[in-house]
Specification:
The structure is a single chain. With 294 residues, this protein is of the alpha/beta class. It contains nine helices and 13 strands. It has a nine-stranded mixed beta sheet with strand order 5-4-1-8-9-10-11-12-13, sandwiched between helices. Strands 3-2-6-7 form a four-stranded mixed beta sheet. The mean pLDDT is 94.
C-alpha cells in the first residue's frame, strides 16, 4: 500500500448498557454500564489501523466537552484525526442497550457529529490518500450530506476510489432510498448490511439485493451477521464468505469492524473475497468485547 485511508464520518460517545434481564418499564433493570469512545466512522478507522493500514486519517466534528478525550483515544488507536470542535453542540451520544443475546438497540443523539459541513473540507485532505471512506450517517443531515458530496466529487476528480457504508436502515427510510442513492452516486464500493441492502434494492432476498446494487456500484459487499458476507460485482454474487466463529458479548460496532478490516485488506492488495474474509475476522474479534473499538 502506497497511500493513506481517509475516513470522513462520525465520532460519538457510546454509553453501553448491558442487561441480562429484559427491560422492565416503570422500574429498575440491573445493567453493566460503560462510557466508551465510538462512532461508525471513527470505529471503522480504528479497526483499519489495527488490522494493517499504514496510515489512517479521520475527519469528524465533536463538542468541546470531550474533544481532548476523543483525540487521545483515536491517537492511541493509531488514527490521525482532524477533529473540528463545534462551538454549539456537544459530541454526539449513542446509548446502546445490549441484551443477553448480545444484540443491541440504539438511542442516538447525533449532536455535533452531523454538523460537519463543506467549510470543514479542504482539498489538501486528499493529499497522499489512496481511498476515501464516507460514513453513511453523514447523509442524514443537510450540512453533512453536502460535505459528503463535496468529498466524493473531489475524490473522483483525483481518481481516488470511494466507499460508503449506508449506516442505518431506519434513517434510510426517513431520508428516502432514491435520495440516498442519488447522493452516493459515483461511489465505487457500497458496504450495506442485509437490512440496508434489501431496503435499497427493494427486494426481500439479500443475495438478490447485492446483485442488483452491484449494477449501480462496481463492488457491493453485504454483511449478514452470523451468516457472513456476500460479495457482488456486475450483477452477480461472486463470493459467499462465512462468518468467523466467535462468542458474542456485544455486537456494537461489528459492522464498523468489518468495514475497517475490509478496507485495510483492500488497500493491502487483497481481492474482494479476501478482503471480505478479513472483514469477517475483524467483526468476530469485535463482538467478543464491549464497545465498538479494537
Amino acid at each position: 500500500m502506497s497511500g493513506a485511508l481517509l475516513v470522513v464520518g462520525d465520532v460519538v460517545t457510546d454509553v453501553v448498557a448491558m442487561h441480562a434481564e429484559p427491560l422492565t418499564p416503570a422500574t429498575d433493570t440491573a445493567a453493566r454500564i460503560r462510557t466508551l469512545p465510538g462512532g461508525a466512522g471513527a470505529n471503522a478507522a480504528c479497526w483499519a489501523a489495527r488490522t494493517g493500514t499504514a496510515e489512517v486519517r479521520l475527519l469528524a466534528r465533536v463538542g468541546t466537552e470531550s474533544a481532548a478525550w476523543h483525540e487521545r483515544a483515536l491517537a492511541a488507536a493509531g488514527v490521525r484525526a482532524q477533529l473540528v470542535v463545534d462551538p454549539v453542540e456537544p459530541t454526539g451520544t449513542v446509548v446502546a442497550l445490549v441484551g443477553n443475546d448480545a444484540e443491541r438497540t440504539f438511542l442516538t443523539d447525533s449532536g455535533a457529529a452531523l454538523r460537519l459541513c463543506p467549510a470543514d473540507w479542504a482539498p489538501s485532505l486528499l493529499d497522499g490518500v489512496e481511498h476515501l471512506h464516507l460514513s453513511g450517517y453523514l447523509y442524514f443531515a443537510d450540512g453533512s450530506r453536502e460535505l459528503a458530496g463535496v468529498a466524493l466529487r473531489a475524490a473522483r476528480a483525483r481518481g481516488v476510489p470511494v466507499s460508503v457504508d449506508p449506516a442505518s436502515a431506519g434513517f434510510l427510510r426517513t431520508l428516502g432510498v432514491k435520495r440516498f442513492l442519488n447522493a452516493v452516486d459515483g461511489a465505487t464500493v457500497l458496504l450495506p448490511n442485509a437490512d440496508e441492502a434489501r431496503l435499497l434494492a427493494g427486494t426481500a432476498d439479500a443475495g438478490e439485493a447485492a446483485a442488483a446494487l452491484s449494477l449501480r456500484f462496481p463492488l457491493v459487499v453485504v454483511t449478514r451477521g452470523v451468516a457472513g458476507a456476500l460479495v457482488a460485482e456486475a450483477g452477480t454474487v461472486t463470493a459467499d464468505i462465512p462468518a468467523e466463529p466467535a462468542r458474542a458479548v456485544d455486537t456494537t460496532g461489528a459492522g464498523d469492524a468489518f468495514t475497517g478490516g475490509f478496507l485495510a485488506a483492500r488497500l493491502g492488495g487483497a481481492l474482494p473475497a479476501g478482503a471480505a474474509r478479513a472483514g469477517c475476522r475483524a467483526a468476530a474479534r469485535a463482538v467478543t468485547r464491549l464497545g465498538g473499538r479494537p
